[in-house]
Amino acid sequence: MSVCPPYAPFFGFGGVAASMILSTVGAAFGTSKAGIGIAGLGTFRPELIMKSLIPVVMSGIIAVYGLVVSVLIAGGLRPTDYSLYAGFIHLGAGLACGFTGLAAGYAIGFVGDSCVRAYVHESRVFVTMVLILIFGEVLGLYGLIVALIMNSRATEAPRCTY
Amino acid sequence: VLVKLLIFSAALAIAPVASYFLSKDYLWEGNTTLAAITAIMSANTVLVAYIVMSIREERLATVKPATSHTTEESKKDR
Hints:
Number of helices of chain B: 2
Transmembrane segments (chain B): 33-52
CATH architecture of chain A: Up-down Bundle
Oligomer: heterodimer
Strand content of chain A: under 5%
Radius of gyration of chain A: 19 Å
CATH superfamily of chain A: lithium bound rotor ring of v- atpase
Shape of chain A: elongated
CATH class of chain A: Mainly Alpha
Pfam families (chain B): VMA21
Order of helices and strands of chain B: HH
Protein name (chain B): Vacuolar ATPase assembly integral membrane protein VMA21
Structural class of chain B: mainly alpha
Largest interface: A-B, 26 and 28 residues
Largest sheet of chain A: none
Keywords (chain B): Cytoplasmic vesicle, Endoplasmic reticulum, Membrane, Transmembrane, Transmembrane helix
Structural class of chain A: mainly alpha
Organism (chain B): Postia placenta MAD-698-R-SB12
Radius of gyration of chain B: 21 Å
Number of helices of chain A: 5
Order of helices and strands of chain A: HHHHH
Helix content of chain B: over 70%
Strand content of chain B: under 5%
Largest sheet of chain B: none
Number of domains of chain A: 1
Distance between the termini of chain A: 14 Å
Distance between the termini of chain B: 38 Å
């Protein structure tokens, strides 16, 4: 058993891919589900469209979280002298950001759809919608924070001289 | 309306990644964690700017028809 086996970068790249893929799936779900409600609102009150696009912008931010974590992890990968410890850290960081982004996108989608439909009838729903969306967005932010903390521990990984 | 949306979409795509790489090299001297935090703060700034812009635009749209209605009624009174 060596500290830096040749298959260690597999886990590192798996973390990069998982972060981007899963957070994008969450963002796509949020965008599409909220977009259904916005299309319904647009037929009745087209002047409210700019305000009702806020769930879509927040879903985009979820994808940006996954992108930043992917770029961050990919910056720490090396072809040689890459320990299995660092590989597992990077995989964990990518999975943490990816799955929380999936959850946040799911929440933003459902909340955006129903709140935007309710906004047609009652304009005071807007502040409530923004509050609930912020709470859903913060779920993705928690995953990003944990991914950042994990990734910062990868620099103390053992070095191999070969 | 479309131009504003395009500008915001481009800003949301470009600003975080650009701020990550620029702050990593010029602000934080290679510390990647702080650079990632800077990127996330720039993305949230774009979001807050969008929310503020959409609220202001809706306020302008609702104030304008109200003022035009009052001037028309004064013409009827004459």
